[in-house]
Amino acid sequence: MKKTVLLFLISLIMLQSCSVNSEIVYHKDSALTYVTDIDTREFMAEMMAMTPDSLKQKEFGEMDKLPTTWTSLYDLAKQEGKLKTENPDTIKIMKKVLMKSIKENNKPAGISFKIEHFTSEDHQSLKNFTKEEKLPLDQNVYSNWDGKTLTINTDNFNLKPLEAAIRTKSSKEDAEKMEGMMIMFFKNIATTLRFENKIKSISGKHDWLKQIDDYSIRVEYDLKTLYNKDGKFKSTDKKITIVTEQ
């Protein structure tokens, strides 16, 4: 499992022109499903063009081995013969965390990552799991959702999990320059919060959060503002409450 996850993280630190689009679906039963798509087409096209044919298999062969259908971290670990835990909470999380590679014209085009039907009871198990396996989750995964009301702490409008994932595969010198690295690596990062029931009301405002339709909210991270201590906001309420109809 570690080998496969590391391949995923390695792809992150190479993406000088990638886009990250995530979606969190908040289910009526208080669970959620999280999917993030990392578009690497522009970067891969540039890298393939610069890499001699004799080195392409060596440089990109491991990426080709990633599954192209949703596969859980549990199944990946078993396939690699590296399942080293019998902890039921860890195994439960590993079965809910899935990943796959995306190909276009039989060439690597991106990586997707998913948490399937995640419940509030899973939160602590996931936090324990990510202490060792650094996964680039949007922190809204941990927001309080009871099936009707979502409460967001806008202090969590940050990219710390993604930073941690990159830091694990960076040199010490690069890790100390994380702010500049994030702006360099990523073209845009956004997360859509989608609800099964229609949105009834929204309390609180933030520059990065906008309602896009009756069922959806979008959070678009402004990297320059996020990593600029002098960046100014018009609206930065610490708490945003979204209530849905029943």
Structural class: alpha+beta
Percentage of residues in strands: 25-35%
Helical segment tally?
A: 10
User: What integer value in Å does the Rg equal?
Assistant: 19 Å
**Secondary structure tally: strands:** 12
- End-to-end Cα distance, whole Å, is 41 Å
Q: Strand order, biggest sheet?
A: 3-4-5-2-1-8-11-10
Largest sheet: 8 strands, mixed
Low-confidence stretches: 1-7, 12-16
Order of helices and strands: HEEHHEHHEEHEEHHHEEEEHE
Mean pLDDT score: 79
Describe the structure.
- The chain is built from 10 helices and 12 strands.
- By secondary structure, the chain is of the alpha+beta class.
- An 8-stranded mixed beta sheet has the order 3-4-5-2-1-8-11-10. It has a 4-stranded antiparallel beta sheet with strand order 6-7-12-9, with no helix packed on it.
- The chain is globular.
- The model is unreliable at 1-7 and 12-16 (pLDDT under 50).
